[in-house]
Amino acid sequence: MQGTPHIASTPHDGRWSPVPPARGEQHPARRPRAAEPRLPVFIDESGLRRRTLQGVALLVGCACVGYLLFVGAVVSGLREPVGTRPPSTNGPAPADRPDTDRSAPSAGGPRQ
Amino acid sequence: MSPRAAVRRPPRGHWLVLLLVLLVVAVALLFEGWTTHQVDAARTKPPCTRPIPREADDGKPLLTFGPKGVATAGMPPGTAALTFDGGPDPVWTPRLLDLLRRHHARATFFVYGKDAARHPELTRRILHEGHEIGSYTYSGGDFGVASPLRAKLELSLTQSALAGAAGVNTTLLRLPHTTAADTLCGPQWPAAKRAAEQGYLVVASDRKARKPWRGVVTQHSQTDLGYHEAEDLLRDRRVKRFTTVSGGLGRPSFVAQVPLAQEIKGEGLIWTQRLGRTFLTVMVWTLTLAGVLGVLRMLLFALFARLHVRRLRRYRPGAPRLREVRDPVTVLVPAYNEEAGIAATVYSLLASTHPHFQVIVIDDGSTDATADIAESVADADPRVTVIRQPNGGKPSALNTGLAHARYDIVVMVDADTIFEPEALARLVQPLAHPAVGAVSGNTKVGNRRSLMGKWQHLEYVLGFNLDRRMFEVLECMPTVPGAIGAFRRDALMGVGGVSDETLAEDTDLTMALWRAGWRVVYEESAVAWTEVPSTVRQLWRQRYRWCYGTLQAMWKHRRAVVEVGPAGRFGRRVLLYVTLFQIVLPLCAPVVDMFALFGALFRDPVEAALVWFGFLSVQLVTAAYALRLDRERLRVLWVLPLQQFVYRQLMYLVVIHSVTTALLGTRLKWHSMKRTGTADPYLLEAPPEEARQSLQGS
């Protein structure tokens, strides 16, 4: 494979021949170097992009922090149980219990 | 501030954002894993080792745990309290509700907190139609085995979910995996007691054998089976009343309104759950896609490399036999503070077998003895010329050299690169074809003793033997490396020389050549040895520059995508490839790693290991193939698994950093300060001597 690499590594000779290699010469010295210093790619002179992106980053950051805080609040707030005692069941079947009124849920008994 | 003054440090804020995003991902993953019992699991029912206390074992289904012991209750005769476990289920809950409405019956639904949060409208409908809601815990974790934290969270998250979904709370609880009261045996009993202490009435069910007319609490699942059981029961004429648990007891409802604050909190929980789920679904798809793409890429590499090798070896009648290129060559060696390596580079060039060439060393305002050393070599050999210029950057040095080039073929060499004697002659051979404008050589790593060197060695071998062969077959070579590349001088002149608009002038130049209609090919037999950064810091800076430069070059030549002919084909292929595999995938990589970590820690570690080793073995096979193609030893493959842990992260963090810098449009120091010469502006200190020697020795 190393014998004639120049042949080997130009495998598309047939298809490639129509490309005029001289095309590059049609506009020689199109851009005389060092004459006009161009701004490097991506440089944003106005700083608008920077500020926009900083805003977006701030937003994303706030959203993330908010989410984390919220999850923290939810998890830490979960300690409060729904009540301290089970609601009473004394209905028709068993004998009456004295604490009927206290635990009536409609009166807000089991709530916080 | 004035834009001119806006020279800044590289950005840093994005690291904080990345950290926060990863933290959010971690929390979302943990929460989701918790609800699906991958984290802190409590799935299986523990075996019953002890029956429930005798006082409670009277078969009655309602258990009130009080300070004086447990009180039981049941439904009065003629009353059946239908209870349905699980859900709300989008299929079966509406059907059950319709069924109950047809029979004017009321029932009790013990719902999962997570499902109530998922289908708040169903939860509201259940309540709206007069039924009662009980807690079936958040995820259905078995209380007999649940950790105290899980038990607590299961209950209170459910309350939150109900508060968010319908603005209510409930004091009814059914423990998952229990039916009649005597199934609350073993560890379930103390768990039930603990739960009841938080204000719950524990609802079991009557035994199946009990006749409904005697008063029962029945238990059905929200399935086809449960539906039919309920349907049969509702047709039972002897049952006078179908009602809720509270209704059967003649008590006020066990479901009560909650204050607004809790409702808001519950709403938040619902949104968190929804967001987390959506996010995870998206991530799983992304991950799958990334994995498939990664494997596909490896396979494509192997395929194209194979194709390339076959092309090289195949005898093809019909192809014109190209002449051997023996034309004189100008070699340009831009150098900036390269006193340690310049002599070795020039001597290696002078030892080339190519019959006729000229070496031009362009000293780019070095502050060390580079120019003097080069001149002393020039004094001994007339083929060497030294040009001194004030510091202007590598592109400017190359342009200066180009202006002094005497011959039509120009080879560009980095001043820290050692050419093999054959390399020059082989490198220029593809230029025999008139359409070829530039040729890329094959770079190998010289200082490969250290782990860093080995990693980069592997990376170079893979890059040059797989990527480049594929690019060659697909006709979209994106870069002729600065270390070894041959160009037609008129092609260079045609595109206006080497541009300094990007930091990756080699990529920029190559793309410009393609767009000017030239072909760029790869000559794998032209080998040059180069030196790679030996510390993480140097590597980081080098890659930052490369990555940022590549982004710049791609952006600069983005119009290639819509061009016609070879330029358009090149543009579409290369921009797609680079965008996908060198930008998008690395940007997803941190989250991928997060998932991998989660999978290994909480999911099946065997599964995670299998996936990981699967990927690794595909990589190993392709890397082995690349090494074999390059006639390198396979022994170095052992660093490939290690590469996954530091190197990979470094590489994707560099991409994130570069993309951020590019998006911000910051004017960095290297844009406005004096440009440096060759390989890397940050490799200002001379390379370590021993590395240099190892390079020369190899």
Automatic annotation (TrEMBL), chain A:
Highest taxon, organism lineage: Bacteria
Composition skew (Basic and acidic residues), residue ranges: 24-36
Region described as Disordered: spans on this chain: 1-40, 79-112
Transmembrane segments: 56-78
Keywords: Membrane, Transmembrane, Transmembrane helix
Name of the protein in its database record: Uncharacterized protein
Protein species of origin: Streptomyces lasiicapitis
Lineage: Bacteria, Bacillati, Actinomycetota, Actinomycetes, Kitasatosporales
From TrEMBL, chain B:
Protein known as: Bi-functional transferase/deacetylase
Ranges where the NodB homology domain occurs: 78-177
Keywords recorded for this protein, A-Z: Glycosyltransferase, Membrane, Transferase, Transmembrane, Transmembrane helix
Bilayer-crossing regions: 282-305, 574-602, 608-629
Family to which the UniProt record says this protein belongs: Belongs to the glycosyltransferase 2 family.
PANTHER family in the cross-refs: POLY-BETA-1,6-N-ACETYL-D-GLUCOSAMINE SYNTHASE
GO molecular function annotation: transferase activity
Keyword tRNA-binding: no
Cited InterPro entries: Glyco_hydro/deAcase_b/a-brl, Glyco_trans_2-like, NODB_dom, Nucleotide-diphossugar_trans
Gene3D superfamilies: Glycoside hydrolase/deacetylase (3.20.20.370), Spore Coat Polysaccharide Biosynthesis Protein SpsA, Chain A (3.90.550.10)
